[in-house]
Design goal:
Blueprint (H helix, E strand, L loop, with lengths): L1 E5 L2 E4 L4 E8 L7 E7 L6 E7 L4 E3 L7 E6 L4 E6 L8 E9 L2 E4 L3 E6 L1
Parallel strand pairs: 2-11
Antiparallel strand pairs: 1-3, 3-8, 4-5, 4-9, 5-6, 7-8, 9-10, 9-11
């Protein structure tokens, strides 16, 4: 299984970005697809997650600004990021889980300038 993220970049505070993650190599629907992020000097943290049943959860710091969605037919998960803040600057990683297996993408850099 391979996860490939895209959509990162440099944006001014208040701007928007949309991240995409395509999972290939699996014919099964992932139980959970999620986005994590890791800022310099900090631990990786969960940003948003989406279950195959449609449930979502978000980190408190991003509620109301970031929106996770997925296309199960395409094994793709998206992260729409609005009203971005400098503290959102991090490498964003896609994660997909099915049963006991957990997969990670290579990460995409998001930089928000003030």
């Amino acid at each position: 299984v391979q996860l490939v993220e895209s959509g990162g970049g440099l944006v001014q505070a208040g701007g928007s970005l949309r991240l995409s993650c395509v999972a290939s190599g699996s014919d099964f629907r992932f139980n959970v697809m999620a986005w994590y992020r890791q800022a310099p000097g900090k631990q990786r943290e969960l940003v948003a997650a989406s279950t195959s049943g449609g449930r979502t959860n978000y980190a408190d710091s991003v509620k109301g600004r970031l929106l996770i969605s997925r296309d199960n037919a395409k094994n793709t998960v998206y992260l729409q990021m609005n009203s971005l803040k400098p503290e959102d600057t991090a490498v964003y990683y896609c994660n997909a889980a099915i049963g006991p297996y957990n997969y990670w993408g290579q990460g995409t850099q998001v930089t928000v300038s003030s």
